[in-house]
Structure formats: structure tokens, C-alpha cells
FAD-dependent oxidoreductase (Paenibacillus odorifer), 397 residues
Amino acid sequence: MSSIPKIVILGAGYGGILTAQRLQKALNYNEADVTLVNRHEYHYFTTHLHMPAAGTDSIEHTRVSISKLIDEFKIDLVKSSVQEIRTQQKKIILEDGTLSYDYLVIALGGEPETFGIPGLDKYALTIRSINSVRLIREHIEYQFAKYKNENNAQEHINFVVGGAGFSGIEFVAELADRIPGLCKEYDVDPSMVNIYNVEAAPTALPGFAPELVEYAMDLLTKKGVTFKMGVAIKECLPNGVILASGEEIKASTIIWTGGIRGNRLIEAAGFEAMRGRVKVDEYLRAPGQENIFIIGDGSLMINPEGRPYPPTAQIAMQQGECCAHNLVAAIRNQQPKKFTFSNKGTVASLGKGQGIAVVGSKTYKGWTAAQLKKVVDMRYLFIIGGIPLVLKKGRFL
């Protein structure tokens, strides 16, 4: 019977892939068996999904084969969906088998949070995966085709995007850029198209300075986006939404970007969770579980101001690196390292050639911020795949 410890990583998102890559560098031969479980054979860039969803970029720019990112002599890749996590038995139930573990990393990513809004889970589309993005893109094109074939029914070219955080703002910016081309292709008057961005909070883009938020909203308003701030979606219907104000917006396309919760498998496994997120300790471990680490959207960490860190790619990547370090430390009976988030800055895209950014105490907007966004994206490509991946997937223009 092998005494080599078994490490199982669930999910190959930002946190999971960084954990796997750091482990394969740090571990010696036969020091541990590492298995990475993912439902797809590819890793995709969640922060890029708004572009292919709107149709302004190729899906191929948003994903890369996991086999190109890991050494399969050191990491065993299992393509399967996780059905259940049994912590008492130290087992993972997959759709086609079972895995046992000594150390577990839960990096399953998040799920859309609907906040109990009736109809949202049934009628709204979400930007959460390659397949969902493909569906959104085809759905939008189909609505333009239907508009001309159904007596110019206005609801086909009305678009409602719920949520004005990063995902919502970046998506409406790309959609606004795509509309002129769609109108030309389908012979639709651009002035007839409406993009509504609905947000329950009083302002968009939390975390950005008011002047940057104002810049973003002014720019997108000029591109044709209508903002409805400080009003929640009360109900989602097959052909539109009803707002808390009582207003009804007829639309055949509703995109929900209004919130992320942790994976439901975490709650089902018996962890104490808030909206699917577990408050991990300073070493990224689940409460009372020294052999289970939770990172990414499923983890809850409190910042120095006493508020939870937002679930971003940046924090998931840093957690992945720290998690790998602590796994190696556990195997070698060494002291683990406390996780400390280092904020490298925040950048939001506002469509082609436009963006806003905060790096340290400095703020940027317009073309400069857009270039910073490309630098951030290419830095990630370099971290996980070196110069070859930057050249293959990077957006230079």
C-alpha cells in the first residue's frame, strides 16, 4: 500500500490551475500524487468571457488546453464532474468514479446568485462558461434575425443586463460596440436598439473612484446604454423584466451579471457557508479541517477594513500560489504561510480602446487604461504559459 500522500484539486480555474502548476514545480519525484479534476479539458479566462459573449472576440482567445499548462507526468488530469464531497470518508464522488484524498483543494468556482428573484434562473442568461458564452452570442444574433422576420417586434432588439459591476459593465460595453455591425448585417436601424443596464445599488462599478465611474457611465451612455440605477429587478419574465419601481421592460434577451455565490457542492458537503462561501483560516484551510483548502469563489476572507474580499481572478491566483506552498509545507511538516492579499490594481474594460484603472494611488482612463488591461491579461498568460501562450492568445491590437 502506497504511503505517498494524495492531493486532489477540484477545479482548474484561476486558483486551481495555479495550485497545480506551483505543486508540480515544488514537489520532488514521488513526494505526492496530485490529481486535478475538471469538467472540461480546457482552462478558460473568466475575465475575458464578456467579449465572445457579445461577439467582439473569438472564443478561442478565452481558453487553453489544460494539457498545455501542466506536466501530465506530475499531475494526473481527470476530466469529470464532481457530484459529491465526502469529508468524513475523504472521498470525492465523480459522475464516473470515486477519488480518495489525503489533502483536498476545493477550487470549484462560483455560481450565479439570483437573490431569489422569480424567473431569473429560468429566463436569464449568464456569462459563466464557454458554453454559456456561445449560447449568448448565438441568441443575440438570432434576435436580430427574428426582428426582421416578425414585423419588427421591438422586444427582439431590447437587451437588459442585470448588474453594473465588472461583468455587467464590461459586457454592455462590448455589446454596444457590436450593435452597429449587427445592425448593418441584419438591416436594422441602430436607433431602434436599446441596451438597458439595471443595478439595485445607487452606483455602478463598486470600488472605483466616483470620477472614474462617472467617466465610464458617460462613455457608455454615449454608446447607447441606458442606465437604471438604484432600482432592482423584481421579476424576470419570458419576454422581459419588471423592476421594483413597477416599470416593465419588454426584452427577449436578459443577461444576469448581478452576483456570484460559491458552489453548492460546498454547502452539500457540510461546511458552514454563507451563500456557498466558507470563511477559511489565514492558511486558506476550512474550519477544523487541516487537510482541506478552499480557494477562489468558494472562499471567504475578510480584508483589513472588516469586509469580505470580492471574489476576483487576482485573489484566486494568489490563493492558488499560497495554497500550493502550504500543501508542500504540510507534506514536509514545515510551517505554513499566512495568506496576504497584494492588490496589484484594478482594471475594467469599456470596449475597444477604452477602460478605467486604479494602480496604487494612481487612476487611469481611456486608451491608457485599455492598454493596462492588455498588460494585465498578457501577464496572466505569461504566468501560466510563458511567452508561447502570450504570443498565441494575447490581444495586441
In short: The chain has a mean pLDDT of 95. The chain is about 30% helix and 25% strand. The two ends are 55 Å apart (CA to CA).
